[in-house]
Amino acid sequence: MSEKPCYVYALLLQREDLANWAQELGSDIAHWVADPSQFSMGKGLPEDWKERGALFAEKGELRWWRDGDAYRALLLTDHEVPGLHPLPGSWSREERSIRFFLQPLDAPHVRPNFESYPHGGERGQLEAVIFRCDGVAMFVSPRRLLP
After folding, report:
1. Rounded to an integer, what distance in angstroms lies between the CA atom of residue 55 and that of residue 62?
2. Structure confidence by residue, pLDDT tens digits, 10-45
3. Which residues contact 10 (CB under 8 A, 6 or more apart)?
4. Are 131 and 91 in contact (CB under 8 A)?
5. H or E segment at 17?
6. End-to-end Cα separation, the chain, in angstroms
7. Is the separation of the CB atoms in 7 and 81 below 8 Å?
8. Tell me, what DSSP letter sits at residue 23?
9. 20 to 30 A Cα–Cα from 144, which one of 11, 30, 117, 128?
10. DSSP characters for 24-82?
11. Per-residue confidence (pLDDT) for residue 1, from 0 to 100
């Protein structure tokens, strides 16, 4: 198993700041957003940022959740971000990505409030990388959706 360095940053943001961090992630961004009554996925930036969610692309992931009037976030990247200080520990990620099969949306026991994954199909895969801190797996970080 080949490892390479990665970086995890904790952020405290306002709602309007969330979209600014998308530039750190890459070009083909996907997202999921949720609140207690709804979960949805899509391509690009979400129209409604909701209570919690994530943006992800080839260079990283931004996870956020509402905390009062602000948003707390974790930025998981493959590169250092100038002006930010990474969380303590020795962070690494697997060199290769892993593919996970997504739940078929046409399965009888699945009833999401969306009819297709962002690529347009009812089935798909999620490509992700494993982030480790001091050798312990901490995050499965999505990178892209596949048909």
Report:
1. 5
2. 999 998 899 999 888 988 999 999 888 888 888 999
3. 72, 73, 74, 87
4. yes
5. helix 15-18
6. 26
7. yes
8. G
9. 11
10. GT-SS-EEEEEETTEEEEEESS-SS--SEEEEEETTEEEEEEEETTEEEEEEEESS--T
11. 66
Distance in angstroms (rounded) separating the CA atoms of residues 139 and 132: 7
pLDDT digits (tens, 9 = 90+) for 138-147: 999 999 988 8
Q: How far is residue 145's CA from residue 123's CA, in Å, rounded to a whole number?
A: 10
C-beta of residue 145 within 8 angstroms of C-beta of residue 118: yes
Alpha-carbon gap, residue 128 to 119, rounded angstroms: 16
Pick the closest to residue 101 from 87, 121, 85, 115 (CA basis): 121
Of 65, 64, 71, 79, the residue nearest 26 (C-alpha): 79
If one counts every other C-beta atom within 10 angstroms of the C-beta of residue 16, the result is 9
Q: What is the pTM of this model?
A: 0.90
Give the whole-angstrom CA distance, residue 67 versus residue 63: 13
Q: Which two tokens stand for residue 128?
A: 């992700």
**Greatest CA separation for the chain:** 48
Structure tokens, 43: 């391509």
